[in-house]
Amino acid sequence: MKIRLFAAILMIFLRGGLAVGQSQQSPASPEEEWSKLTAEQKATLRERYQAFKGLSPQQQQEIRNHQEQLRNLNARDRAAILENHSTFRRLTPQQRQRLEQSYQRFKSLPPARQQQLRDNYRRFSQMSPEQRARLLQNFRRWQELTPEQRARLRRQGAAPGAQSKLPAPKPARKKRPPEKAE
Q1: Is the pLDDT of residue 173 over 80?
Q2: Above 80 in pLDDT, residue 104?
Q3: Distance from the Cα of residue 68 to its chain's centroid
Q4: Beta strands in the chain (DSSP E)
Q5: How far apart are CA 107 and CA 104, in angstroms?
Q6: Cα(82)–Cα(16) distance, integer angstroms
Q7: Averaged pLDDT of the chain
Q8: If you write DSSP's letter for every residue of 6-28 in order, what string do you get?
Q9: What does the buried/exposed string (b/e) look like for 72-89 if buried means 16 or more CB atoms within 10 Å of the residue's CB?
Q10: What DSSP designation does 92 have?
Q11: What is each CA distance from 115 to 101, 102, 135, in whole angstroms?
């Protein structure tokens, strides 16, 4: 019964409490929630419960704190977080590993640099699609430059990717049709 109770509570958490847009009627009891689950969902919850029990008390408390934070969010923010989590779970193991490595690199940076990167990301996310496309194009062009070209542009005072100072992108090579032998 203890497993069922915890699993039902965990299921409510995983589903983000009440579904977004659902009216707040009297909440179902944990037993009712459990009875609504499929056999596969119950098995998954049992596995997750066992994994949770294998965590240290500190890790368990961290999860409880995150659950509480999630419950206290408004419906829109909670839905966004759950969607991001769903997207993360669909990543391949290699994509997850790259993401985790990037996150660890970010966390190892000094706080001032972390804040600078957050500010840059916020500015990027507020750009129009055209501005983003232009910035990304300039970034790709910057990456194609040799170290010497980059150093020269820096000495000239050009911002990385500045339109006026970067050489034009290399034209895409077109495949020639095979020549006909006569």
Answers
A1: no
A2: yes
A3: 21
A4: none
A5: 5
A6: 7
A7: 79
A8: HHHHHHHHHTTSSPTT----PPP
A9: eeeeeebeeebeeeeeee
A10: -
A11: 19, 15, 20
- Look at the block and give the residue holding tokens 């990385």: 160
Q: Which two tokens stand for residue 167?
A: 């050489």
CA distance 66 to 82: 12
The arithmetic mean of pLDDT across residues 105-131, rounded, is: 93
- pTM beyond 0.90: the answer is no
Q: Give CA angle at 54 (51, 57), nearest 5°.
A: 120
Cα angle, residue 131 at apex, residues 129 and 132 outer, rounded to 5°: 65
55 phi/psi in degrees, rounded to 5: -80, 160
Would you list the domain boundaries of the chain?
1-17+28-90, 93-126, 129-155
- List all residues 6 or more positions away from 132 whose beta carbon is below 8 Å from its beta carbon: 124
Q: How far is the C-alpha of 8 from the C-alpha of 37, rounded, in Å? A: 9
CB atoms closer than 10 angstroms to residue 172: 5
